[in-house]
Design goal:
Length: 635
């Protein structure tokens, strides 16, 4: 670590100055001026260092490194710090050296080395308050990066007395919250001690309450109120973390008139009608249905523009919009600058370019299923995947979502084969399993030798499983080909598209072994869902095949709309519905957590689902309730 800058090292110094100046290209006038001033200071300090006596050079290099760190140019700061002669620094200058070196190492990913640098600092009280705050923040970040979450939180809790700026206090509390929420729930209880300050114990308690009751809004808010009485002046109560602020301010939607925008005719009419039936079933299943909101249906297929029924609904007094169904229609509405009426769209856009606080999106996107397939495969210990996907937009979206998630977890998607037609399936499976090259070599040898050859075909051995998307008729052809080409032992994980929704063991025997994810209404073996299927079989049997996914979407969209802001404020809270366990993210997107099953003897058998105490929806309505609603304001 001890190096000297001699006259012969001036070339290195000039190169450093050039690199520093070259990197100064920020956007915006104010940041550009600040960067230019900083660059001038850096140039001045480095020129001073080149001309200074040996004993003064190192202190100037430390100053230059500090300026570079403020600009977040950590690699350049590191280049300068390695030339510092620590023996030429005073004790206080050494504190700066350890701080700056620790910050650069932390930013560059050397987390353990950074912690060692920070722990080398001994004369903290001799430094100004601003320096002490910076040191404690950096040391806390280093503890956090080294998974020592309690120490990271304690350092920032102690900082509360030194920070006076309200924005800094808010940021500091968020960091405390971030660290404590990484600690296991039970361990939070064990960390509470009489040896801690009251402030530390207060933080541990509120973090425990949030993790213990985060899925139960009413209980969480009740526990928070009790906690406030015990810690009335606690910093987390005065400068409350954002998560708790949202939880405390979340209120249910209580609309009096819900406008439902659906295609009830035309090419999408069958989907719209099934969603319609789900909404109606949920409406009449509610206790005291006569006191429930008024429903007004608008047939979007009768209008060229989605804005027409949307504006008509608002003009006629709707205070909540449910729908529309198509992505184009949703986008045309979201392009408006102001949306004052809360809305739950019945589809999901691929991006988050529209940000309206009162707008939520709930659909049946392939992305949810692909992401869960990636998690499920990783949980089973699979690390290498190959994909067999349709050559269409669904395949593209599924591949992107699966690959992004699987690789983030630590897996790898090593190959994807795309198919278009059933006639291609045999050759495409050969290519997927890499048996096509073996077959080709055999044929070429037979041509060359003029006789048939004995041949032992071998498939690829570099993968753990196949991620597949296919319709039932396609799957019944694909799986036998996979078995035929010596991959009978290779697991296949698929999505809901592989299942027709109806148990048909004789037809689906060729799907044996495939695991897939689907909605609980069609798969779950829990009593609440079994009862729902029994009731639906009498009321609306068409909801118990693939169309049931749209029935469940309609049913859950109505039941969940009052809970949307609650779900968004409570990230751990899951609402159990017919279409899955539902959660809402900060962007207002509703995510489904589905049930897993495997084809055994031609029928799906549940392999994974989370036990629930009760279904959020208790029972199906009577047949008369579903049929009599057809006259409800279908504009």
């Amino acid at each position: 670590m001890i190096n000297y800058f001699t006259q012969g090292n001036k070339i290195i110094l000039i190169a450093l100055i050039a690199l520093i100046l070259q990197a100064c290209d920020p956007s915006g006038p104010s940041s550009r001026n600040r960067a230019q001033n900083n660059a001038q200071n850096l140039e001045h300090i480095l020129k001073q260092a080149a001309q200074a006596p040996v004993g003064q050079k190192s202190a100037l290099y430390v100053q230059a490194a500090g300026l570079l760190i403020l600009e977040q140019r950590f690699e350049k700061a590191q280049e300068i710090l390695i030339h510092v002669d620590q023996q030429m620094l005073t004790p206080l200058q050494m504190q700066d050296f350890h701080l700056f070196h620790g910050e650069t190492l932390l930013a560059l990913g050397a987390t353990e080395a950074s912690l060692n640098q920070f722990k080398s600092i001994t004369q903290i009280s001799m430094k100004p308050i601003e320096w002490q705050i910076r040191y404690a923040q950096s040391l806390s970040d280093s503890y956090l990066a080294n998974n020592n979450y309690f120490e990271a939180a304690k350092l920032r809790i102690e900082l509360d007395d030194l920070i006076s700026d309200p924005e800094q206090l808010k940021s500091n509390n968020e960091k405390i919250w971030q660290a404590l929420n990484k600690i296991e729930t039970d361990f939070l209880v064990q960390l509470k001690s009489d040896f801690n300050t009251q402030r530390v114990n207060g933080w541990l308690e509120i973090a425990y309450i949030n993790k213990r009751w985060g899925y139960h809004p009413e209980k969480l808010l009740s526990e928070i109120d009790t906690w406030k009485k015990r810690y009335p002046l606690h910093p987390s109560s005065i400068h409350q973390p954002e998560v708790l602020q949202k939880a405390a301010s979340a209120e249910e939607y209580t609309p009096s008139k819900i406008a439902i925008l659906l295609p009830l005719s035309g090419k999408l009419g069958s989907y719209g009608k099934m969603i319609h039936d789900g909404i109606v079933a949920a409406h009449y299943q509610t206790e005291q249905a006569d006191l429930s909101p008024q429903l007004a249906f608008y047939d979007t297929a009768r209008n060229l523009s989605a804005l027409t029924p949307y504006q008509q609904a608002i003009a006629e007094g709707a205070d909540f919009i449910l729908g529309p169904l198509t992505k184009d229609a949703i986008e045309s509405i979201l392009k408006q600058e102001s949306l004052n009426i809360p809305m739950l769209a019945l589809n999901r856009l691929e991006d988050n370019q529209f940000n309206h606080p009162n707008v939520f999106q709930f659909g049946l996107p392939i992305e949810d299923e692909a992401i869960q397939a990636a998690h499920y495969a990783y949980e089973k210990g699979f690390r290498k995947a190959i994909g067999f996907l349709p050559a269409n937009s669904t395949g593209v979206r599924a591949e992107e979502a699966f690959q992004k998630t699987f690789e983030k977890l630590g897996g790898e998607l090593i190959h994807v084969e795309k198919y278009k037609e059933i006639a291609q399936l045999k050759s495409k499976v050969q290519q997927l399993l890499r048996v096509d090259s073996s077959i080709y070599r055999k044929k070429e040898l037979e041509k060359l030798l003029g006789r048939n050859l004995e041949f032992e075909m071998r498939r690829r051995q570099d993968t753990d499983f196949i991620f597949m998307i296919a319709r039932p008729d396609e799957g019944r052809r694909i799986k036998p080909f996979i078995r035929y080409y010596f991959a009978h032992d290779l697991p296949v994980i698929s999505t809901s598209s592989i299942y027709s929704g109806k148990k048909d063991p004789k037809t689906d025997i060729d799907l044996n072994g495939i695991e897939f994810t689907d909605i609980p209404l069609l798969l779950s073996e829990l009593p609440a869902f079994v009862e729902s299927r029994e009731n639906l079989a009498q009321v609306l049997p068409s909801a118990l095949d693939a169309r049931g996914r749209y029935f469940a979407l309609g049913y859950d969209s109505y039941k969940i709309l009052s809970q949307l802001t609650i779900l968004q404020a409570f990230p751990e809270y899951r609402w159990s519905g017919l279409s899955g366990e539902l959660g809402v993210d900060q962007n207002g997107l509703v995510h489904r957590f589905l049930t897993w099953a495997q084809f055994q003897n031609g029928a799906p058998k549940v392999t994974k689902e989370r036990e629930i105490k009760e279904l959020s929806s208790q029972k199906m309505p009577e047949p008369s309730d579903v049929t009599r609603v057809t006259g409800l304001n279908a504009n």
